[in-house]
Structures are given as C-alpha cells and as structure tokens.
C-alpha cells in the first residue's frame, strides 16, 4: 500500500486553511504514528486518505491512483477509518451485525465473513459479546467494536484516530497486539495519538504535524531527539526520554533499561 500526498492543501468553507501544501509518502506495512497538538491538522490529513475529505488543491494518490477518481465508499474498501468517538460509527443492534455490515455491503462471501468473524472477534476481545447491543458495551469495548468492524472489511490500510483515548493498560496491550498482527498480515496501520508512551512503544516512524504542516517525519528516535523543533508542536517526549535528555545523554531512550545502559556507557566513557 502506498499513500502519497502531493502539495496538498485543504481549506474549510469558513476559509480556514487546515493543511498547507503537504508532501508526504507513507508506504509498505510499517505502522506510522501521526502526532501534534490539537488543531495541528492530524485528523484533517488522514480523512483525505480514503476520500472523507477532498483536497482543495494538490492531490492524494492511493497506489498511484488519484483519490478524485472514486467515491469514499469505494476507497473505504482499501483504506478503513476508525473514528475517535465510537458513537459516531456504531448504529446497529448487535456487535455481530456491526461486524457483518461492512463486509456484506462490499460483497464479501458469507463463508469468508464467518471465518473473519471468528478471528476478528477474538482479536478485539468481543468473541463472547457478539449478541450484545453495542451501547451496552463499556467505552473501551465500544472502541474495540469499531476497530473490529473496520478490520472485518479487510482493507489494505487502516487509520486509527486516537485509539488509546480512555483505554486502560489491558486495552493498550490489546491495541499493541492488533497493530502487530495487522502488520504481520501485510496491512498498513496509521494511528493518530497523543499518548507518547504508546507511540514510542509501537511505532518506528513518526510524523509530527504543526499548524497544518509536516514539522518532522522520520524514525522515532530521530524525531524525539529534536527537542527544540518538537517544542514548536507542543509535543512532550515520554518522561524517561525527558530525564535522559535533561541528564545530557546523547542517546534517545524510551525505557528505563535503555536509560540505565546509556547512563552507564556515558559514565564509563
């Protein structure tokens, strides 16, 4: 899967310019995190990846094809979008029907739907709750219900908008397993998150948005090493990373173990 943005701008009907000439390529199966303060343009940019929003100028190419060539419904078969608020996505009377709805609309064979139901319901932790009404689920379970509904459609890329919001430790671990398994199955996972610990634990590439532009884009260690540039986006590195930077360690670390190793190496050196 390859998503390419070429000098893409988006201006809302109010006249506000949300995206200001974005050039960006996301390709392959390595998960990518998009971070930045509220209003930086994160959600606006990912809503262009399957045509929910269309560029004012410039272009978005999916595997070389312009987003303008097809409807959002058509693109959703290839790029699935999980909304930040589950209540914006759930509308049927059972978890099972939520999982079946998308695949049935795109013509997936019933045998495949049943097979995917078994795998997906287990993956998102709702195998024993398929008969429940989605609004009888906990807020965490609702989130996983929406994630499961999109995975059921078997898109080549999936966008998660703030999936850790409201999650506990167990929920974050499940999200980690989901992202890892999607990668193993050849899927591209793009995630918006304000949880920097979750970002550094699960993503090797980070895109930093600031005021409608891409401020930084690169390997996670390299991005979080650019302290002064990050300040422009009001992004705060994980606590252990800040401690290491404050101690003058040259290496960018994300775990206590890595901090100790870097500190010992610095002391001996």
TrEMBL record:
Alphabetic keyword roster: ATP-binding, Cell membrane, Membrane, Nucleotide-binding, Translocase, Transport
Protein name: ATP-binding cassette domain-containing protein
Pfam families to which the protein is assigned, alphabetical: ABC_tran
Broad class of the protein's primary localization: membrane
SUPFAM superfamilies: P-loop containing nucleoside triphosphate hydrolases
Gene Ontology MF annotations: ATP binding; ATP hydrolysis activity; ATPase-coupled transmembrane transporter activity
Native source species: Schaedlerella arabinosiphila
Any one GO CC term of the record: ATP-binding cassette (ABC) transporter complex
Domain annotation ABC transporter: ranges: 3-236
Family: Belongs to the ABC transporter superfamily.
CDD domains named in the record: ABC_cobalt_CbiO_domain1 (cd03225)
SMART domains assigned to the protein according to its UniProt record, in alphabetical order: AAA
């Amino acid at each position: 899967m390859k998503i390419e943005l070429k000098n893409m701008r988006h201006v809302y009907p109010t006249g506000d310019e949300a995206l200001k000439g974005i050039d960006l390529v996301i390709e392959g199966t390595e998960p990518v995190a998009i971070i930045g303060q509220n209003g930086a343009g994160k959600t606006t940019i990912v809503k262009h990846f399957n045509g929910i929003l269309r560029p004012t100028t410039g272009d978005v190419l999916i595997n070389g094809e312009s987003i303008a060539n097809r409807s959002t419904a058509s693109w959703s078969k290839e790029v699935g979008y999980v909304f930040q608020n589950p209540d914006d996505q759930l509308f049927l009377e059972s978890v099972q029907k939520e999982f079946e709805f998308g695949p049935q609309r795109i013509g997936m064979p019933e045998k495949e739907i049943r097979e995917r139901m078994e795998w997906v319901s287990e993956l998102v932790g709702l195998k024993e709750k398929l008969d429940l009404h989605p609004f009888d689920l906990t807020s965490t379970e609702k989130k996983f219900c929406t994630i499961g509904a999109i995975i059921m459609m078997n898109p080549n890329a999936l966008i998660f908008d703030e999936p850790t919001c409201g999650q506990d430790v167990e929920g974050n671990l499940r999200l980690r397993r989901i992202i890892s398994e999607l990668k193993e199955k050849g899927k591209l996972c793009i995630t918006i998150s304000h949880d920097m610990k979750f970002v550094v634990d699960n993503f090797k590439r980070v895109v930093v948005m600031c005021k409608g532009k891409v401020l930084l884009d690169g390997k996670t260690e390299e991005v979080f090493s650019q302290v002064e540039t990050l300040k422009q986006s009001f992004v705060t590195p994980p606590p252990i990373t800040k401690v290491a930077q404050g101690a003058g360690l040259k290496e960018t670390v994300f775990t206590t173990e890595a901090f100790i190793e870097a500190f010992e190496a610095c002391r001996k050196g």
